[in-house]
Amino acid sequence: MLQTITREVKTLPTSYHQAISTVMDLVVAENPASLLDLGVGYGKYGVLCREVMDIRFKRYHRHEWEARIDGVEGFAAYRNPLHDYAYNQVYYARIEDVLERLPIYDVVLMVDVLEHFPRPQGEAIIGRALAHANKAVVISTPVDPAPQADLYGNELERHVSLWRPADFRRYVSDVGVLRIESEGALIVRLRPEKQQGSRKGPFPPDFKLKPAD
Prior knowledge:
It is a single chain. The chain is of the alpha/beta class and about 210 residues long. The chain has a single domain, classed as Rossmann fold (3-Layer(aba) Sandwich), CATH 3.40.50. It contains six helices and eight strands. It has helices at about 1-10, 20-30, 45-55, 80-85, 95-100, 120-130; strands at about 35-40, 70-75, 90, 105-110, 135-140, 170-180, 185-190, 210. An eight-stranded mixed β-sheet has the order 3-2-1-4-5-7-6-8, sandwiched between helices. The relative contact order is 0.17.
């Protein structure tokens, strides 16, 4: 019964909750003043990033916030009050259509995004994300994406590609596999060229790190 429940949960438009602490550790390590969340979805990473980028510095009320947190969501029907509250701006457009027009951010976040793009398109988006990042691009993608078609009428939810640690060796990167039950998340921190040689903040000690040389 538990296995059945697990598989059902993974067909919803959400990401592994087990990966949250690792992803957020990587965000905090960069001490960003600005962040772009590609593939906002429900908006939970906007809330979590707002907490670590503003709330923990005693800037609790919205009018006190100093950090810039923007997002891109290709399916406007996902809009909800979290989008309007936690983010400064959410752009309801396809990532590939809007990214070039956006400013530079300290960190670009891509959680459960790459598996929804064919590989050539995904590689192009990584390149654009790096060009829009001052410090780092943080990526999480399933190690073994389950077959997934449209959800809630959203064709962008389809799983169309699979990514491995070797796919990131061309970049200045840290790559690790976070084991989740029998599956897992591939979590990657990429550095733009201006940050080559920089490795701020190690991955958590219980994280299986695989440096990409």
